[in-house]
Amino acid sequence: MNHAATPSLVDVPEGTSITTLLADRVARTGHGTLLERRDGSSWVPVTAHEFDADVLAVARGLVAHGVEPGDRVAIMSRTRYEWTLLDFAIWTAGAVPVPVYETSSPEQVHWILSDARVRLAVVETPAHADAVGQVDADLPDLERVLVLDGGSCGAQDAALATLRSAGRSVPNRSLLARRDAVGPDDLATIVYTSGSTGRPKGAELTHRAFCHLALNAQQALPDVVAARDARTLLFLPLAHVFARLIQVAAVAGSTVVGHSGDVKNLVADLHDFRPTYLLAVPRVLEKVYHSAEQAAGGGRRGRLFAWATETAVAWSRAQDDGGPGLALRVRHALADRLVLARVRTALGGRVRHVISGGAPLGERLGHFFRGAGLTILEGYGLTETTAPTAVNLPGAVSIGTVGPPFPGTEVRIAQDGEVLVRGPHLMRGYAGDPAGTAEAFTGDWLRTGDLGSLDESGRLRITGRAKEIIVTAGGKNVAPAPLEDRVRAHALVSQVVVVGDGRPFVAALVTLDAELLPGWLAARGIPRAPAADVRDHPDVLAAVQAAVDDANTTVSRAEQIRTFRVLDGDLTESRGHLTPSMKVRRSAVVKDFAHEIDAIYG
């Protein structure tokens, strides 16, 4: 099969925008809780009416500061309540929010603010304001920078206090006229790709794209985003389109939303907030599993965890093959009571579904979590598709695939294996880049740059990136991603980069997980030491070799990783090796570690 399509469940009515989704929520459940804000040790509810009133107050402040319909307003911050408030206020004022990762360098900030022609920027900290200040002389469109925390009054929400105060002179009727003038085909946001090569491109996403996905999600995932008790804790960056879409879909349904912007507080926030569904990238799920594995330690408890893991995987696999027998059901119930329930507790105790995207999850991890009572809804999408373009649905999960096309989406596999996508959720183009836009499309089909296949049921499987295919000196084409994902599943491994383009065989650069390394060493009686000091330790090399051997079982002999080299540190965003969404910038790694690669083939 080379073509699959899923019809829309809901068509976006004319006159609909992201702000009308909020208005509908207020009309349906105005006195019900829409968000909860962390206040010390407790979560304070914010009703839909209260949030809407705050949105209007901040939006009037934007108008008072001269923001006109269509103007671009940047937000640079961690994930927090104020980001969601600003997003909806900017939309209400008829303007266009432009997200910026809070980890961005001054050079990256300059590119995004200049390319998008940002007029006003709201940043979280004085350090962020300094990053803008280093380049604002070259930003002729930028008129003002407001700081949320530590601003002129030194308090939290300083920027919002300024906006609320300024907005008191703006009549509501003029603001509501702006809001009502926004239509589905108007620009909603410009999201800059965190691609692994070249300068980021600004994907122009419309209100229709967000509304189509949000409204169809209510019908396609009714037990997730539209459940009566639905709660989600946003902790992925809201600068990423994945979290932004979930934010909008949550408002369109009945979900109560919380925010957690600091990974150090995530475990406590999950425990207190108790979400029913989460969105995550595979790296987060890998960390959850490996942390549970390490907490079990060695000896009897370690063997018990390994037994429970095998039981969970077997129970999950049996779901796809007629269901588990009596013996496996009894075993699974015991494993759940002794071990698996703790995994759910670590996520707050009420999570039923996890929406996973951004990278392949891996079948074994998918089966483990399903066996542990958590349904992983693995999906696939791009910034250019406003996030989801395919997703597994509850009750029809096919582990190892990213599911069928999302409602309203068509997927086609080109002759060279590239995945092409068509639907109302596609970007309208790259900001100020007609050549890049033309290159991204074949007619009205978006070229994803990913390789994949469709099974007989129309479910999509992603097999790699077209531009990342390695061609060895012997002419063998190798897709690095599946090998990397399998090696990275090991608890000791943080990142993997498969190399071998133009070389006689395939090899890999490997980094160690700094968080889990101390516990791993202690469990084996090895003195605690940094990665640079133990990267050549026989036990470390043996563990990485075992992970490589496991990955090699999935490919032909010519595609196997023949050898590897453990680096003395991890790949980081600050060194330019990772994107803000934790994807590896392959070209940067190959360039910066050329001497290590040469040594492999020396």
TrEMBL record:
One of its GO terms (molecular function) is long-chain fatty acid-CoA ligase activity. Keywords: Fatty acid metabolism, Ligase, Lipid metabolism. The keyword NAD does not apply. InterPro entries: AMP-binding_CS, AMP-dep_synth/lig_dom, ANL_N_sf. PROSITE patterns: AMP_BINDING. It holds the Pfam family AMP-binding. The keyword Transit peptide does not apply. Residues 37-430 form the AMP-dependent synthetase/ligase domain. PANTHER family: AMP-DEPENDENT SYNTHETASE_LIGASE DOMAIN-CONTAINING PROTEIN, LONG-CHAIN-FATTY-ACID--COA LIGASE. Belongs to the ATP-dependent AMP-binding enzyme family. This is Acyl-CoA synthetase.
